[in-house]
Amino acid sequence: MRPDRFLTADQQQTVVDAVRLAEKDTSGEIRIHIDSRCTGNPVERAEEVFCNLGMHRTERRNGVLIYLACNSKVFAIVGDKGINDIVPDNFWDDISLLMGREFREGRFTEGLSQAVRMVGEKLKEFFPYQQNDVNEQPDEISFGN
């Protein structure tokens, strides 16, 4: 399946709305990227996509990418240096567990939306919304191979 057809237009909008809502409480940036296939390590692929999207260019280095390869049935969550320097190694584990449960049941929109909300809550703890905050990354889902 082509990654841009994995979610319907309405489902994509639901996920984008979740990103916008989550970012209202944090200066962090959240993005979703969907590939068709991932032939290697999904974390390494997510890190590559993270760089390709320029997510490392945020002022506070507080971007988070939720990566999904729909046909390979793998996903990963990666955060930038600003986040990784201050959070424990297992910081994203509860979100990954939730996504895995939802995805196994075929609830991809729900899994992504809930993951985005949880990422936003975690980011708020370390990177609360600033009065002069600028949206440094697009909220729309990006698609790859």
Structure overview:
- The chain has one domain: Roll (Diaminopimelate Epimerase, Chain A, domain 1), CATH 3.10.310.
- The chain has 5 helices and 4 strands; from the N terminus they run H-E-H-E-E-H-H-H-E.
- It has helices spanning 9-23, 42-52, 81-84, 93-104, 108-126; strands at residues 29-35, 63-69, 74-79, 142-143.
- The protein has a 4-stranded mixed β-sheet, with helices on both faces.
- The termini are close together.
- The mean pLDDT is 94.
Topology readout:
Blueprint: H1 9-23, E1 29-35, H2 42-52, E2 63-69, E3 74-79, H3 81-84, H4 93-104, H5 108-126, E4 142-143
Helix pairs in contact: 1-5, 4-5
Short description:
This protein is an alpha/beta fold and 145 residues long. The chain has helices at 9-23, 42-52, 81-84, 93-104, 108-126; strands at residues 29-35, 63-69, 74-79, 142-143. The chain has a 4-stranded mixed β-sheet, sandwiched between helices.
